[in-house]
Amino acid sequence: MRKALVSLALAWVLGFWGLLPCDCGQAQQTNVLLQVIHVDTKEEAQGVVGSLREGKGFDELASELAPEGLKGKKGYLGDVELGKLLPPFREKLGAVETGKTSEPIPGEGGWFIFRVLSKEDASRYEAMEESPQFHLERGLVLGEMGDEEGEIQAYRRAIVLDNGLPEAHANLGEALRRKAMRALQGSGPGRRELPPWAMELLDEAIDELKAAIALNGDLWEAHFNLGLAYAAQGLLGLTILEFREALRIRGDSGDLHRAIAQALILEGRLEEARGHLQKAAELGAEVEGLKTELERRSKGRKGK
After folding, report:
1. pLDDT tens-digit profile of 270-283?
2. Distance between CA 55 and CA 44 in Å, rounded?
3. pLDDT of 20-72, one tens digit each?
4. Per-residue pLDDT tens digits for 228-247
5. Which of 70, 231, 283, 298 is the most buried (most CB within 10 A)?
6. What is the pLDDT of residues 154-202, one digit of tens each?
7. Residues 11 and 253: beta-carbon distance below 8 Å
8. 81: closest CA among 115, 35, 126, 34?
């Protein structure tokens, strides 16, 4: 499982705006109670299915193979609304009968296998002690499944239980940033203004990311996502500062060198950008598009 909500590849493709695919069809209102197992590969997922067919219990397997924070509750994920999920999860889980398990479902960071629970069975797991780590991990799983609101609520609950958990603040901040950026979807290619409600979310996202950094200054993801949030506000100077902090921690990341080069180009600091693009290329990042933009701007500057 991913430990913080950041996708450098996605941020590069979409600039600094962080938009994500949105399935806007009619939402189902059906809720399901779930347990979950997560493994890295399709082959491992097929092995889990084989073990279940041979009679091994889901609880036993989930105690070993559920996301770390969910192991104490035997992989219990809780109540999930199908209509809020991405299509692969919504469609496949909607076809699973109570008491049965799903076929393996691919996600961003591996493969999921779910068991649909009755209310009676779910009550046993609900009675188990909750922990901040449970809600932190639950938020990660729900986010990967596409339930944005459930993800945010889970991180908020983790913070209520332990305000000193930097990952919870970092993940909440990034989830809020992404939600704010959704306001740009469907608004046309040239628009870069956020409505007031999205600006408020963005301010809250920045506060949460700052809180995460105050608790642990070495979370490169928090610095990077804070930089993205500043970029959405047009504060490229602060964006560059945060990207540099991320780079201090992850200096071997070609994607980070590319991201800071992009910000520097937008800021007009072309020679600095050139150095970061060269380093990004050396580290294997795709830079051709930015190199073209850099040369275009350099020629325009010389022609003045």
Report:
1. 999 999 999 999 99
2. 17
3. 444 444 444 589 999 999 999 999 999 999 999 999 999 999 999 999 999 99
4. 999 999 899 999 999 999 99
5. 70
6. 999 999 999 999 999 999 999 999 999 988 765 555 556 788 999 999 9
7. no
8. 34
* CATH 3.10.50.40 assigned to 24-138: yes
Show me where the domains of the chain are located: 24-138
Tokens, residue 57: 């219990």
